[in-house]
Amino acid sequence: MATVPAADALVRADQATLWHPASHFDDAALLPPIPIRAARGPWLERADGGRILDAIASWWTSVHGHCEPTVIEAIATQARTLDHVMFAGFTHAPAVTLARGLLDAAGPGFGRVFYADSGSDAIEIAAKLSVQYHQQRGDGRRTRFAALEHGYHGETLGALALCGSPVYRAPFSPLLREVLFLPTPELRGHQHDALHGDAGADDPACERALALLERDADTLAAIVIEPLVQCAGQMRMTGVGFHRRIVERARALGIHVIADEIAVGFGRTGRMFASDWSGATADFLCLGKGLSGGALPLSAVLIGADIESAFRGAPERAFAHSHTFCGNPIATAAAEASLSLLRARLGPAVDATIAALAQAQRTVAQSCPAVVASRQCGAIVAFTLAPHRRRPDDGRIGLALRRAALARGVLLRPLGDTLYWMPPLCLEPDAIATLTAVTCAAIDEVLG
């Protein structure tokens, strides 16, 4: 067995060999990578024995917390039986059972499940299915896409083209197709505004978005939308009413709706899927991140029941898309266990966590003068920080806040001037108290 290097040697080796995502090389001098040797629940265990509260669920994946015993046992059991088999021409019980569970959880309207490896893959699959569907139904004009300003859908080229933020698109703009971007509301008031039945429906941005859909309806294959919360878009909360009106109008115009629930699905908003709040059913439901309980790479697209009719007939009408590890037995077994666990936990247990986070949100908002607005959608909480207050010399509020929080044992990763919480749903009261205190201390240290 290879010898595990000491923490400092591991960091040096890391910095000599690895290229980390979403990091600038100069960041390593200010905040070197932290060696993690174990994890349990919402806690990461450092190589030096210290603990870090994972308040962002490791990029929104760890729904139940790390190393959830039910999920880990499912992985171990499956790994001893069948590790992998190509999904073209073969099948296995975990993939079938999970598909049935997902279709049941999503409710009427969906007919099949297509597996992939990441959220970006899921978006690509849905987009390609939509265009091919329209072509094979004889409507070759529908080749364009609409998406929302500030939205984020992944970083493969098709998915990246649908991102409504220049931060992600600009470096690769020569490679990206043109997309119709629609304006979005931004709810900043009461903590539960996003979940009110008509939230965002009467916002002027909603009317402008609907008008643009009407104008370009004949050429649009699909619209891609993150229900309720644009997570990478600084946790903008757009509202149930906005989502309902956009989905219903698009489908009435013959425009497919691709619901990107990769970040907001699996209990994040207090229900299994964020779309459940509006009752508006999409044509494609894209899932990832928390699908496997955050343990293994896995994504899925739930496909509307009426879509497959366009793909039947001659062999050339088939959907020519594949992933080497799609439908992996170990990953789908983990997801099956995670889905069962979430079904049992949704309701009073998750509602209590959401209520506790609401109280913590109020405490931070009232205690920190630098917080100019705060908002909540289920277990997602966000704070907008005053732009005019004291800033770090390099202007990088997010990095400074991350450093200040990590020094106190909490992982936060702000998005510009937006600091957010998106923790595992298993957060206990003492962990919420720690999160509240550290958030206040970090804001006070960086912004005064």
Shape category: globular
What is the helix fraction of residues, given as a range? 25-40%
The CATH class label of the largest domain is: Alpha Beta
Low-confidence stretches: none
Share in β-strands? 15-25%
Report how far apart the termini are.
50 Å
Tally of DSSP β-strands: 16
Mean pLDDT: 94
Tally of alpha and pi helices: 14
Number of domains: 2
**CATH architectural group of the largest domain:** 3-Layer(aba) Sandwich
Q: CATH homologous superfamily of the largest domain, by name? A: Type I PLP-dependent aspartate aminotransferase-like (Major domain)
Give the SSE string.
HHEEEHHHEHEHHEHEEEHEEEHHEEHEEH
Radius of gyration, whole Å: 22 Å
Strand arrangement, major sheet? 4-12-11-10-7-5-6
3D structure, described in words:
- With 448 residues, the chain is an alpha/beta fold.
- It folds into two domains: 34-67 and 347-447, Alpha-Beta Complex (Aspartate Aminotransferase, domain 1), CATH 3.90.1150; 72-345, 3-Layer(aba) Sandwich (Aspartate Aminotransferase, domain 2), CATH 3.40.640.
- The chain is 36% helix and 16% strand.
- The chain has helices at residues 7-17, 27-30, 57-60, 69-79, 93-106, 119-136, 157-161, 166-169, 204-216, 240-252, 329-345, 348-367, 397-406, 429-447; strands at 36-40, 43-46, 51-54, 110-116, 144-148, 180-182, 220-225, 229-230, 236-237, 256-260, 284-287, 299-304, 371-377, 380-385, 410-411, 418-421.
- Strands 4-12-11-10-7-5-6 form a seven-stranded mixed sheet, with helices on both faces. It has a four-stranded mixed sheet with strand order 1-2-3-15.
- Helix 4 packs antiparallel against helix 11 (329-345) and helix 5 (93-106) runs parallel beside helix 11 (329-345).
